[in-house]
């Protein structure tokens, strides 16, 4: 029997749908990738034309630094995404890979022995959100209100144009 080349696990993209909770007013928690302060912004309702993302991304309402739209997840959200991916994708792939290796060992009449130990993880509890911030509306972009930390006393900037609130 000739040697069989092992097939790679997969180079396919996997898409997962994950729900991030909104607060009672419909705001989504975000985190500035620069100053790491949390804020909330209002997702565009379905059927409504969104305000275009500014060139270079959104502005932080605290420090004014701009970052792309994919950079604003909170640490808790990123950890949640990683745990979901592990439970839904990585764990099943490792189980399949381990079963495939064991089958190959049986077919080769015990020429080699492989032991794969892997602790499966459960899906994490869904995220929740608190009503812990104060709302700020902007004349420059009235359809883009945000929420900032209750105790923030500095200027608050619009996430679309970086203009400080009036």
Describe the structure.
By secondary structure, the chain is α+β, with helices and mostly antiparallel strands. The chain has one helix at 75-107; strands at 28-31, 38-41, 58-59, 66-67, 133-136, 146-149. The termini are far apart. 12% of the residues are buried. Mean pLDDT is 83; it is low at 1-8.
Explain the layout of strands and helices.
Blueprint: E1 28-31, E2 38-41, E3 58-59, E4 66-67, H1 75-107, E5 133-136, E6 146-149
Antiparallel strand pairs: 1-2, 2-6, 3-4, 5-6
Low-confidence stretches: 1-8
Beta content comes to 5-15%
Give the N-terminus to C-terminus distance in angstroms.
Answer: 78 Å
Helix and strand content put the structural class at alpha+beta
Tally of separate helices: 1
Task: Record keyword descriptors for this entry.
166 residues, 1 helix, alpha+beta, 4-stranded antiparallel β-sheet
In short:
The chain is of the alpha+beta class and 166 residues long. The protein has one helix and six strands.
């Amino acid at each position: 029997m000739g040697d069989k080349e092992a097939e790679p696990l997969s180079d396919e993209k996997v898409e997962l749908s994950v729900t991030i909770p909104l607060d009672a007013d419909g705001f989504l928690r975000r985190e500035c990738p620069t100053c790491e302060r949390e804020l909330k912004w209002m997702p565009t309702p379905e059927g409504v034309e969104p305000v275009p993302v500014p060139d270079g991304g959104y502005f932080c309402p605290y420090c004014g630094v701009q970052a792309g739209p994919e950079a604003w997840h909170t640490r808790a959200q990123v950890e949640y995404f990683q745990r979901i991916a592990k439970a839904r994708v990585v764990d099943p792939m490792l189980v399949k890979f381990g079963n495939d290796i064991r089958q190959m060992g049986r077919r080769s009449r015990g020429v080699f022995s492989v032991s794969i130990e892997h602790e499966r993880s459960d899906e994490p509890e869904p995220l929740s959100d608190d009503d812990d911030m104060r709302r700020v509306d902007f004349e420059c972009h009235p359809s883009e209100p945000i929420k900032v930390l209750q105790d923030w006393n500095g200027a608050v900037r619009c996430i679309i144009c970086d203009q400080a609130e009036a």
